[in-house]
Write a structure and sequence with these properties.
The chain has about 100 residues and is an alpha+beta fold. The protein has two helices and six strands; from the N terminus they run βαββββαβ. Strands 2-5-1-6 form a four-stranded antiparallel β-sheet. Strands 3-4 form a two-stranded antiparallel sheet.
Length: about 100
């Protein structure tokens, strides 16, 4: 006897890598724009333009992950680009993901 198929629902994963100084504002903005939850990690990295090694408080970076509907992900990304990109180092990217409890996202 085979197990029943798991029902999956497509959502968008939005990843924001940016300066830790704006974490609290990003959380508040994301929730206000419709995100139901988020995950934040402290990260380090670099590019051909700069390196963020987190050697001192103002040099810390975070990676914020949000899984939400495509519309909410787009609204958050647009807000972040307009509000924060001119003043802070940041990277955004999207990915399609499948979830099993869509009401959480």
């Amino acid at each position: 006897m085979s197990a029943p198929a798991m029902e999956k629902h497509t959502r968008t994963l939005l990843v924001i890598i940016t300066e830790a100084a704006i974490e609290k504002r990003l959380v508040a903005d994301s929730q206000r724009l419709g995100a139901h939850g988020y995950t934040v990690h402290d990260v380090r990295g670099g590019s051909r333009l700069s390196t963020r090694e987190a050697l001192w408080e103002a040099d810390r970076s975070i990676e914020m992950k949000l899984i939400c509907t495509p519309e909410v992900a787009d609204a958050i990304a647009l807000h972040v680009m307009v509000t924060y990109a001119p003043h802070y180092s940041l990277t955004l990217f999207f990915s399609s993901v499948d979830v099993v409890r869509p009401e959480k996202f």
